[in-house]
Design a protein that fits this description.
Elements: E1 2-8, H1 12-21, E2 25-31, H2 36-41, H3 45-50, E3 54-58, H4 70-86, E4 94-97, E5 101-103, H5 104-109, H6 111-128, E6 132-136, E7 145-147, H7 152-161, E8 167-172, H8 173-178, H9 183-187, E9 191-196, H10 216-223, E10 229-232, H11 239-250
Parallel strand pairs: 1-2, 1-10, 2-3, 3-4, 4-6, 6-8, 8-9, 9-10
Antiparallel strand pairs: 5-7
Helix pairs in contact: 4-6, 6-7
Length: 253
């Protein structure tokens, strides 16, 4: 399992400093929100290569794979295609995304409609980019809008139809703690990426493991999954402590 950290372009220098300091870190999952950030990333290409880091992209939170307006949904496909083209020299390992959000009353009345929209989005995206795509579990507070992808059912429904080896699951422990479901047992064969963080079960505060309510037993179960990437999606100040805790837990698995 390749250990990585999450970053945005504004703090990528700090992320690279961490990768230089901790040899266990071999990957960066970078959030890209605008196409011009792709050009700016080339400034760091030499250093990324020197550190022998691999790179993946976390697509914007605003992306809405379940969008009902087809024109808008396809614009997100084109946006991702453009990122893939602009970053072709980086050998991007995967694109990670959230399924999106819907007006709560509409989602409650017809969830399958929005899951089918997500399926269409993924099918179109697979035609446009030759790269792995991971879809991530999220949480929802059920206000005026609700997030899609906060139950095992959502992903089982999608994977039953989208039978493409390039489409996998990203298991986020922090989101799981807020909206719990049996993701590991139900989707372990689809899990390609793990986002590791801890919290208090209420707010997604991205603290290091051992600082919240994530149980050691759950971490052990997670480490048995044959995921390729383990992304520490946590406060950088907690990186060292979390790596030490992980190494200790791995020794017990």
């Amino acid at each position: 399992m390749i250990i990585g950290i999450s970053a945005l372009l504004f703090n990528i220098e700090e992320a690279l400093d961490l990768c230089e300091k901790f040899s266990d870190i071999k990957h960066i999952e970078l959030g890209i929100d605008n196409l011009d950030e792709c050009i700016k990333l080339y400034k760091y290409k030499d250093r990324i290569e020197k550190l022998e880091l691999s790179l993946s992209i976390h697509l914007p939170m605003e992306l809405n794979a379940c969008e009902s307006v087809e024109y808008i949904r396809k614009s997100w496909v084109n946006f991702t295609k453009n990122i893939s083209n602009d970053l072709k020299d980086f050998d991007i390992k995967y694109f990670n995304l959230h399924l999106g959000y819907v007006i709560s009353n509409r989602l409650k009345k017809n969830k399958e409609k929005y899951l089918n929209n997500s399926i269409e989005f993924l099918r179109e995206l697979c035609k446009e980019i030759n790269c792995e795509i991971t879809i991530e579990n999220v949480y929802s507070n059920y206000g005026d809008f609700s997030n899609v992808g906060n139950t095992v059912y959502d992903f089982e429904y999608i994977f039953k139809v989208v039978k493409n080896n390039n489409v996998g699951f990203c298991y986020d422990t922090g989101h799981y703690l807020i909206n719990k479901d049996n993701y590991i047992d139900s989707l372990k064969d689809k899990i390609k990426v793990i986002h590791l963080s801890d919290n208090d079960g209420i707010d997604d505060i991205h603290i290091g493991i051992g600082r919240g309510i994530l149980q050691k037993k759950h971490i052990k179960e997670m480490l048995k999954i044959e995921a390729k990437y383990l992304i520490l999606e946590i406060n950088y100040e907690h990186i060292k402590e979390t790596i030490n805790n992980l190494n200790a837990i791995m020794g017990e698995v």
